[in-house]
Specification:
This protein is α+β, with helices and mostly antiparallel strands. The chain has helices spanning 18-29, 44-51, 83-93, 106-126, 128-132, 137-143, 153-156, 161-184, 199-215, 220-225, 232-239; strands at residues 2-7, 34-39, 57-58, 64-65, 70-73, 78-81, 147-148, 151-152.
Amino acid sequence: MITFYDIHTTSPYTAWSPITWKVRYILNYKNLPYKTVYLEYPDIEETSKKLGIPPTSTKKDGSPYYTLPAIYDSSTNTALADSLRIAQYLDVMYPDTPAVVMKGTEVLSLAYVDTFFGKFVPLNMCLFRAVDKILTPRSIEYLSRRTFSGKTWADLLVMTKQDEEEELKKVKEAFSGIEGWFKSAGQEGSFIMGEKPMFVDFAVASIFMYVRTVAGKESEVWREIVGWQGGRWGRLLEDLKEWEVVV
């Protein structure tokens, strides 16, 4: 049995993080049995060390940095973090399931996802007030020690409506550039590699799942985004709807 570690929330919509949704999508797509364990931010490091889940990077002081998503596969006694590494592991260990990372595309996949997430940052700045409402005081206190694009958690909670509109405009312009990539390649479908979804498709969809969940389906920001680029991003979620299951 695979145990999937996700980030805890007080919201009834338990699955919200764009970072962890990638792995949930992939587990569902592969139809692998798994259970979900939700962790608060302050508990990620301790739990990772206990289970032998390796860090994914280092902090500024040189100490190991532990992050989610992470999994523990009891059938192979394997514990690991990082969505791409998890996807690669699942492809290798469960070859009878549909592969999501084509060999030789790992670097390109990371570059595409990093570029996409980078263009998404201004929008994320607009959603912190919504996120603040679904996290526990323990997690908020933990996150308050960090900065986000040079801003503190407190700074982000007092963004004005005008600030948010300006940030949203930046994201729309950036995503228009990505839409240009698809048009230049003559790609009309939702998925980057054609008919079947791959790691990058699940990663991109995770961003929009995050916005839809945190902001709400009826929110002004979601209604605007879902219509961007001729409705491309709304169609992407619709085409992946079968694998939205939260276990």
